[in-house]
Amino acid sequence: MISPEFNFNILTRDLSHYVENQVKVGLFDSGVGFSLMLGFSAAYTCYYLLSVAKKPQLISGGKKFCQFLRDHCPVVSETYYPTFWCWESRIQTLLRPFVTAKPGVVYRNELIKAADGGQISLDWFDNDDSSTHPDPSCRPTVLLLPGLTGTSRESYILHMVQQSRQLGYRCVVFNNRGVCGETLLTPRTYCAANTEDLETVIEHIQRAHADAPLMAAGVSMGGMMLANYLGRKGRETCLRGGLVFSAGWDVFECTASLEKPLDRFLFNSYLTSCLQASVDRSILKKTMMQILRSASQAKTIREFDERFTSIMFGYPTNDDYYRDASPIHRLKSVQVPLLCLNAADDVFSPSHAIPVETVKQNPNLAMLITCHGGHIGFLEGLWPRHSTYMDRVFKQFAKAVIEQGSRLQDLC
User: Name one GO biological process term (predicted).
Assistant: First the structure.
């Protein structure tokens, strides 16, 4: 009698032999495996072309601005082809800092004084080798505002500096207080609602280069700050135009989206820890010890804002701060050309909170919405190392505003 163990060994041996020989022959030599792979590839390609690669939606409050964009920024009318192997929003958001190259940029740092006695760190890229604008006194300047905890060394900022270098423009990066390691001279950091530091920076740039055209581009929270500034100032600004990327238009909706389990794990907790690190400075420990201790225990951005940001900037409640920080309430007052780029799948700024109807009511506004792109993602190409859809929007719009800006006068 043959034992069960012997039968099992024989069966295992025969099955292994079959897998190594018969299955290989049947699947590949006969073309079955190739056919399956070809069929899957064809199905994926069809899905990608029909459901993923689409033209962005361009919304504007006036025909004149819309036509200007179509004439001078062809990217707004082109199909956006996200990188085919990572078009999902969270993957785009997470991968961009790692897959995109960081162009070499040498900055000139400048610390300027704020009205309250604090200091603001500016990183200048003077572009003295510019052949198109060799005279520094009238060389166009682009002011760049990084995201929530970002600095002049973020890949998306470096790419915009690189695009500006190619255009012959000068760049200056506005680093929020405390994020670059500079000493906090006063017990104050930054928030999306407060634009006093931004006003100080713009006035400083204007005094230094009075004859040079100036525009600004803000990313994420930097874009929120820029939109709030433009809404407050109306026509009383020297900026010729603005660009806003991946802004959170309604802070209530943004924080609610980021508190969903997966997004809280992937993004919220990390950003909260970065915020806590940015305020961990000696002057804050001396003057705001109890508040800082409470903020250090926050688990989400909302908790951090409740325990620190809203208190520091004097808001009665966190809801009051979030209402004031939401740019959606000030867009109607913007009086210079402002182009905004958002992805419909951005978990930081959910599509239902994108202010489409508000944009339609202001001829100075235009909103460009892609189906995919995530938060500051917008990757494209087989291996997206050097340029993104966002970079192309930036370069074309910056050039159009600086060199064709006269066509944007009196958009109303």
Answer: medium-chain fatty acid biosynthetic process
Task: Determine the topology of domain 59-249+326-408 in CATH.
Answer: Rossmann fold (3.40.50)
Rounding to the nearest 10 degrees, give the CA dihedral for residues 328, 333, 339, 341: 0
Please give the Cα distance from 391 to 150 (Å, whole number).
17
Distance CA 402, CA 412 (A): 20
The one-character DSSP state at 19 is: I
Helices (H) and strands (E) in the chain, counts: 18, 9
**Among candidate residues 122, 336, 106, the one with its CA nearest the CA of residue 244:** 336
Percent of the chain with pLDDT over 70: 90
How crowded is residue 26: how many other Cβ atoms within 10 Å of its Cβ? 13
> Where along the chain do its domains lie?
4-49, 59-249+326-408, 251-324
Which residue, 327, 302, 312, 296, is CA-closest to 189? 312
d(CA 25, CA 176): 63
Q: If 0-12 CB within 10 Å is exposed, 13-18 middle and 19+ buried, where does residue 47 land?
A: exposed
Active centre residues (catalytic): 220, 346, 375
Taking the C-alpha atoms of residue 183 and residue 286, their distance in angstroms, rounded to an integer, is 14
Distance of alpha carbon 390 from alpha carbon 91, whole angstroms: 16
How far apart CA 308 and CA 293 sit, in angstroms, is: 10
* pLDDT tens digits, one per residue of 38-76: 887 888 889 889 989 999 999 999 899 999 999 999 999
Give the closest residue to 184 by CA, choosing from 95, 312, 69, 326: 312
Q: pTM score, two decimals? A: 0.89
- String of b and e for 315-328 (b: at least 16 CB within 10 Å)? beebeebbbbbbbb
How is residue 4 written in tokens? 């069960």
